[in-house]
Amino acid sequence: MRGLRPLAEIQYLDYLLYCLQIMSDDVASLHYRTRGGQKAPVIVRTRGHRQVGIWHAGSPLAGIINLLRGMHILVPRNMVQAAGFYNTLLLSDDPALVIETLNAYRRKERLPDNLAEFTVPLGVPELLRPGDDITLVTYGACCPIALEAAERLSRLAIELEVIDVQTLLPFDTGGQILESLKKTGRIIFMDEDVPGGATAYMMQQVIEGQGGYYWLDSEPCTLTAQAHRPAYGVDGDYFSKPNVQDVVALAHELMNEADPTRYPPFS
Fold it and tell me: Does residue 204 surpass a pLDDT of 90?
């Protein structure tokens, strides 16, 4: 508010709970409360998802989405996307939260020549893998899981279209997910939040907000984490959150309903 552009660092996404009151009542609402007269272009940087530990692997996105209306909520799946988001935000005067993916730190990526200049637009999903049978909508740490599952499903003659929403606020401003649903007629929303969390938000945006209900050939599905904090340890994390086998099983179940002969139940 004094002309600076702070970048606040919060070590883990779980710790955001300590900051929500200030972010919600002060930062997110400032532009609205002052009728555009004041701005607070703070960027809050944090990280989470797919990390072993009860306070290091949470995903309270439902609360964040609802409490921080007035801030951009960005969920890059890798560090190159994160850099593009930061470049975009530095050209803006809007406050934002960027949630980096912990397990992406260990993944090799091609370094762009224009790392400090290229931007990633907000509210524009990215098609990661085309498919004709089922649309899978996800973000962040679930993207590589969805892509691996898509490869396995392809060997079962099921083609999964994988879409990374990239930003939850704003969400798919051009209706790209709806266009995918028009093609496939079936849709799965997946993330690491609890049931009824951010997947329910995404479903409402597409099925109700975009009129996606008109194009459904099967019931829309959500694939979420379990209804508790992540269990401790590698095995606990695996069984607490969606994994490749979960995606394969749910997608196959949808296709079995449509064509039991071609897609018989797993034995």
Answer: yes
> What residue has token string 């008109």?
214
State the average pLDDT over residues 177-203: 97
Q: Are 190 and 147 in contact (CB under 8 A)?
A: no
Q: Say what the pLDDT of residue 212 is.
A: 97
Q: Which long-range CB contacts under 8 A does 119-122 form with residues at least 24 apart?
A: 119/84, 119/87, 119/88, 119/91, 120/76, 120/81, 120/84, 120/85, 120/87, 120/88, 120/166, 121/88, 122/72, 122/74, 122/85, 122/88, 122/166, 122/167, 122/170
| Same fold yes or no, 7-106 and 126-258 | yes
Task: Give the predicted TM-score (pTM) of the model.
Answer: 0.95
**pLDDT of residue 211 exceeding 90:** yes
Average pLDDT over residues 19-26: 93
Contact yes or no for 211/178 (Cβ under 8 A): yes
Identify whether the C-beta of residue 144 lies closer than 8 Å to the C-beta of residue 77.
Answer: yes
14 CB contacts (<8 Å, ≥6 apart)? 48, 55, 56, 57, 58, 60
The domains of the chain are located at 7-106, 126-258
For residue 72, give the DSSP letter: E
* Options 3.20.20.70, 1.20.1300.10, 3.30.420.100, 3.40.50.920; CATH of 126-258: 3.40.50.920
| Mean pLDDT for the stretch of residues 185-197 | 96
- What pLDDT digit, counting tens, does each position of 122-160 carry? 999 999 999 999 999 999 999 999 999 999 999 999 999
Q: How far apart are CA 76 and CA 86, in angstroms?
A: 10
Give the CATH fold of the 7-106 domain.
Rossmann fold (3.40.50)
